[in-house]
């Protein structure tokens, strides 16, 4: 039997519990299940989609545990990975059209702050119409 304090942040309360080792193990398994996504993630399909859509970015060949965790985290936070990859593929900057010839990678896109910037359009191509060149003296009309 062990004594534990359970903090209820929602109600700003602390509960004192006495749990057996078996009960504590069951509680830990339950809490772990709450953290994992309830929907099975097809990591291989995510990798294939990235490689198919982001042809201007370095290909990704391996599904590491770190990548799986990052993919799960983004999906849990409500990110649309198809949208992320489409917007990244449309960005000339992320594809290497920058002063350092730097290219974004799958790992870079899976960082939540980077994914947010891409989805919000921070790296979208600017399609402003070129302005007409100024000809003559603009002050001539003021005589």
Can you tag this structure with a few keywords?
mainly alpha; 2 domains; 143 residues; two-stranded antiparallel ribbon; elongated
Describe the 3D structure:
This protein is mainly alpha-helical and 143 residues long. The protein folds into 2 domains: 2-35, no CATH class; 43-119, no CATH class. 42% of the residues lie in helices and 10% in strands. The chain is built from 6 helices and 2 strands. It has helices spanning 21-35, 43-53, 65-76, 81-90, 106-109, 112-119, and strands at residues 2-8, 13-19. Strands 1-2 form a two-stranded antiparallel sheet. Helix 2 (43-53) packs parallel to helix 4. It is elongated and about 90 Å long. It starts with a strand and ends in a 24-residue tail after the last helix.
Overall spatial form? elongated
What is the beta-strand fraction?
A: 5-15%
Distance between the termini: 96 Å
In total, the number of strands is: 2
Supply the number of structural domains: 2
Quaternary structure annotation = single chain
> What's the number of helices?
6
Summarize the amount of helix as a percent range: 40-55%
Characterize the largest beta sheet: strand count, sense, and whether it forms a barrel. Answer: 2 strands, antiparallel
Derived from helix and strand composition plus strand pairing, the structural class reads mainly alpha
Q: Which residues form runs of ≥5 with pLDDT under 50?
A: none
């Amino acid at each position: 039997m062990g004594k534990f304090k359970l903090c209820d942040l929602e109600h700003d309360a602390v509960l004192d519990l006495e749990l057996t080792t078996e009960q504590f193990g069951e509680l830990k398994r339950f809490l772990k299940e709450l953290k994992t996504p309830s929907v099975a993630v097809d990591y291989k399909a995510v990798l294939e989609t990235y490689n198919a859509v982001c042809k201007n970015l370095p290909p990704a060949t391996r599904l590491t545990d770190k990548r799986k965790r990052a993919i799960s985290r983004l999906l849990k936070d409500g990110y649309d990975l198809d949208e992320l990859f489409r917007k990244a593929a449309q960005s000339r900057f992320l594809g290497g059209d920058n002063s350092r010839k730097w290219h974004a990678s799958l790992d870079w896109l899976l960082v939540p702050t980077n994914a947010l910037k891409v989805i919000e359009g921070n790296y979208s191509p600017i399609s402003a119409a070129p302005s007409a060149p100024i000809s003559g003296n603009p002050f001539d009309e003021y005589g």
